[in-house]
Each structure stands twice: as C-alpha cells, then as structure tokens.
Amino acid sequence: MSGKIFWSIIVIVITIAIGVILTNNFGRQSKEVKEFKIRAFKYGFEPNDILIKKGDKIKIIINNSDILHGINIPDLEIRGNDMVEFIASKQGQFIWYCNNYCGEGHGRMQGKLTIE
Questions:
Q1: Which SUPFAM superfamilies would you find in this protein's record (predicted)?
Q2: Of all helices (H) and strands (E), which one includes residue 9?
Q3: Domain match, 15 and 37 both
Q4: Which domain holds residue 9?
C-alpha cells in the first residue's frame, strides 16, 4: 500500500512541476509593447523609417504638428489617426501613408516599416 502512495505522490509532484514550467514559458512569450512616436507634419513623418522584428507588439503614436494626419499601412490592413497597435505578423517592407488629405504634397507623405 505504501508503494501506491509513494508513486501517487511522485505523479502529483511531476504534474505540478510540468504545470509550473509551462506557465512560466507562456509568460515569457508575452513581450512588452514597443512604442514608437512619430511626428507628422505637412508632407512628412519623422522618423519615416521603423525597423522591428516579426512577432513584436507595436504601438505607434502619431503627434500632429499642424493639421490632422494619420497612418495607413495597406498591406498590413492597419489604419489610424492618433495611434495604432498591432503585432508584426509577417516579414517584409511596408510603406505607410498619411490617411488624411493635407494638401498638394499629401501623396508624397509616406514612411517605411521593415519587419525582420
């Protein structure tokens, strides 16, 4: 009878240990949000080039210097005025554009997001 109790305790301890290990590993996968502040002004962004890694959690905050600007990254289906948040899910180079018409140079107002 004591042999059954011993092995039952061993199984319980191993089960708890596996649960603790899995919980800690899942917690480590939750990365902090990487925040970028972009100044938007008539016909430009500063910075206009951002480099991130696939899987990163991203928050882009747009500070407008003059009129309302925004950001549109069509290939990633991301669009917003003051802020956008997303997880970088695919690698490549993606052009972003201002999504609010701001005058003659509006079509030239763009930046580049590179996801490695």
A1: Cupredoxins
A2: helix 2-29
A3: no
A4: 1-30
